[in-house]
Amino acid sequence: MEKQLCIDRAEHAFYKIYNRFPVVFDRGEGVRLYDTDGTEYLDFGAGIAVMGLGYGCPEVTQAIADQAAKLCHTSNLFYNEPSVRAAEKLAWAAQMEKVFFTNSGTEAIEGALKVAKRYAHNKGMGTDYEIIAMKHSFHGRSLGALSVTGNDHYQEPFAPLIPGIRFAEFNDLDSVKALFNEKTCAVIMETIQGEGGIYPATEEFLKGVRALCDEHDALLILDEIQCGMGRSGHMFAWQGYGVKPDVMTVAKALGNGVPVGAFLAWGKAASAMTAGDHGTTYGGNPLVCAAADRVLDLFEEKQIVTHVQEMGAYLWERLEGLKERCDCVTGHRGVGLIQGLEFSMPVGPVVNNALLEQKLVLISAGSQVIRFVPPLVITKADVDEMIGKLEEAIRQVTLSVAEA
Ligand SMILES: *Cc1c(COP(=O)(O)O)cnc(C)c1O
Q1: What is the pTM of this model?
Q2: What's the gap in Å between 252 CA and the centre of ligand 1?
Q3: Ligand 1 center–CA 223 separation, angstroms
Q4: Alpha helices in 125-202, H assignment, sequence order
Q5: Distance between CA 150 and CA 145 in Å, rounded?
Q6: What is the SS3 assignment for 264?
Q7: If you measure from the C-alpha of residue 399 to the centroid of ligand 1, how many angstroms do you get, rounded to a whole number?
Q8: Which of 170, 226, 260, 282 most suits a substitution to test ligand 1, by most atoms within 8 Å of the C-beta?
């Protein structure tokens, strides 16, 4: 299909919900994507932090192909081996006791919220409970996840959302403390805010929230959908803080491109749900679990977490250099391979120029932050190449602004 024809047909067929870039990708390999004209792109977005092991990872491809030929789906009325293997490995890596597989991140959040509600209900709080969430958070687009997403722009057209949600300032312990009362049954937050602009929780904040939850017998839910699966330089970001959540969510990189997520729990939260409380038709099917199982093996075999620590340090150093050279770069945050550069101007034109002129895929997080969430298997040479292309994109955009 000719590129423009594909774009036109897509615009005709789909709900007008996305503003897409005029690129039609056809295949990928490692850190590279190729469009239908065969043009190569360097990718530092990983399909929004999904392709941790890179595009076309041969081992994952093989696992998917083998399982697809054998059995894709049976429903949760029966047992299947790939889901057991994946669940055991995931629970082990996350130091959790119970796993529930979902088809997406937002569904993992729905499940986690239901655990909190069920926990409150079991305690005899009835429906008279509250959940504390964070401003500038992102937890997904389904109505429950949207209810705890601290973004008026996303929420407003769909109000009223679920009741009893109160928003605190991220990294401001006093603002959380001020919202706690005898009705609070849970706090939900990202360990590192992703869409909100790459803000890691401070250690003081995370430890403080954990202590407040313990004091009030409330559950701490950490959303690791974006920052989990090795991206922070720990398998899960909270493991770098010495603070353990009661419930956590994972998705994005778990299946390296097949849609699979999960919520996990331990201790009192692990026993909160009982038979009939939740369900899914597809969730945990053998096809996606064969992929997740192989992904979890490969994290061990390839020592991905150690690699992320090394590459994250190198990316940090190179972005610091870029920040010094470019006046329009005003901030740099993050850890491991989840970093953000803040600009004094909207980053849309830079992202656009990088993609269309430099053949570099970058994604933003909010209007003034470029987010770096590359495949975790990048090399130093990839980082060097990215810096060169990004600097050129910044140069071209600032030049054209100066000329205008
Ligand atoms: C992407 C994301 C979600 C939602 O995941 P979907 O698979 O898009 O539903 C939830 N929380 C965080 C932190 C995310 O980055």
Answers
A1: 0.98
A2: 7
A3: 9
A4: 143-147, 152-155, 173-179
A5: 10
A6: strand
A7: 36
A8: 226
Mutate to test the pocket of ligand 1, among 193, 225, 258 (most ligand atoms within 8 A of CB): 225
Q: What is the pLDDT of residues 38-73, one digit of tens each?
A: 999 999 999 999 999 999 999 999 999 999 999 999
Which residues, in sequence order, are CB contacts of 369 under 8 Å at separation 6+?
Answer: 197, 198, 331, 340, 341, 342, 343, 347
Across the range 23-50, mean pLDDT stands at 98
Pairing of strands 192-193, 219-223: unpaired
pLDDT digits (tens, 9 = 90+) for 221-248: 999 999 999 999 999 999 999 999 999 9
Distance, CA 9 to ligand 1 centroid (Å)? 28
**Which residues surround ligand 1 with Cβ inside 6 Å?**
104-106, 109, 138-140, 190, 194, 223, 225-226, 251-252
Helix-strand-coil percent breakdown of the chain, rounded to 5?
45, 20, 40
Residue 184 — left, alpha, or beta (φ > 0 → left; ψ -120 to 50 → alpha)?
beta
The values of phi and psi at residue 54, to 5°, are 90, 165
> Residues 250, 292: contact at Cβ < 8 Å?
no
Cα 263 to ligand 1 centre (Å): 12
> Which atom of ligand 1 is closest in space to residue 140's alpha carbon?
4
Distances (CA, A) of 336 to 176, 266, 300, 340, 374: 27, 26, 17, 11, 10
Which pLDDT belongs to residue 127? 82
